[in-house]
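Retro notes (design track)

What went well: tokenization of the new backbones is finally stable.
What didn't: we kept losing track of which sequence belonged to which structure.
Fix going forward: every design gets posted as structure first, then sequence, in one message. First example under the new rule, 281 residues:
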């Protein structure tokens, strides 16, 4: 009732914007709902047509087939370790680098910051051969370090944290210095807690990117025990998966995307707060 009253009390422009947002939200949810419903349909029925997607029969066989796969939980653990390690490492390095660029003075700071930003213009595919050769020489393939370390060079993370640190008044640092606080103590206990919204946003995007990454894990992890979930799921598909196993394919998509959705639910308020704060600044 309160929501209806709020909608009536809005201006005509606000109503149009809200209606447009609702239309876009529904348009975004329709493909997601379609994938979820298809994941519960028997593959034998989907081979002929998807017209009966809203009608029985439904089955859990596609999900039981995923769980029955011998390596699926190993792949899930690998993805959690890789995505979690990459997220933590990115947050630590980006926060330290961002604080250094925003709060300290050192020779060549501006030039170095420009070089970091140039990393945003270099696609991963451009360095994939050199990266593969480097980790081959170090004999690090088929291990967690090889899957995690390349993702720690996060130019966007450094840029985001630098801009966020710059938006925090320097008076806070100066007040802490008057109390004889060290530079690291100011960073760790005074300034860093103020950047939690930005860190949550960066963490979500980093985790999502690492979780969905397919190219580098496909190249670096050649042993099934080291497959991430994306590579492992792809390895179970047949050449005719899209025609003979469409329900199983959709169940894989739901299974792989569920952990990311859960993580987003826990941190969505920080993302909204960070976006709102950026808009105000």
């Amino acid at each position: 009732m309160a929501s209806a009253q709020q909608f009536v009390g809005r201006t005509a422009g606000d109503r149009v914007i809200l209606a447009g947002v609702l239309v876009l939200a529904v348009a975004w949810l329709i493909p997601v709902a379609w994938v979820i419903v298809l994941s519960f349909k028997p593959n034998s029925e989907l081979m002929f047509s998807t017209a009966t997607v809203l009608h029985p029969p439904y089955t859990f066989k596609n999900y039981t087939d995923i769980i029955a796969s011998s390596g699926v939980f190993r792949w899930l653990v690998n993805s959690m370790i890789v995505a979690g390690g990459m997220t933590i490492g990115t947050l630590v390095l980006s926060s330290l680098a961002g604080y250094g660029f925003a709060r300290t003075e050192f020779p060549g700071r501006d030039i170095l910051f420009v070089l970091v930003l140039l990393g945003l213009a270099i696609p991963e595919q451009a360095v994939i051969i050199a990266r593969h050769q480097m980790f081959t020489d170090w004999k690090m393939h088929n291990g967690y370090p090889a899957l995690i370390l390349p993702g720690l060079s996060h130019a966007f993370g450094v840029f985001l944290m630098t801009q966020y640190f710059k938006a925090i008044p320097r008076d806070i640092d100066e007040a802490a210095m008057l109390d004889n606080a060290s530079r690291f103590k100011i960073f760790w206990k005074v300034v860093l807690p103020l950047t939690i919204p930005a860190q949550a946003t960066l963490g979500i995007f980093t985790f999502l990117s690492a979780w969905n990454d397919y190219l580098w894990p496909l190249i670096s992890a050649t042993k099934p025990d080291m497959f991430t979930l994306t590579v492992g799921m792809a390895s179970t598909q047949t050449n005719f998966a899209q025609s003979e196993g469409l329900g199983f394919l959709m169940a894989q998509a739901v299974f792989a995307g569920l952990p990311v959705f859960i993580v987003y639910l826990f941190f969505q308020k920080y993302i909204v707060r960070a976006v709102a704060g950026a808009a105000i600044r």
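Added context from the reviewer: The mean pLDDT is 83.
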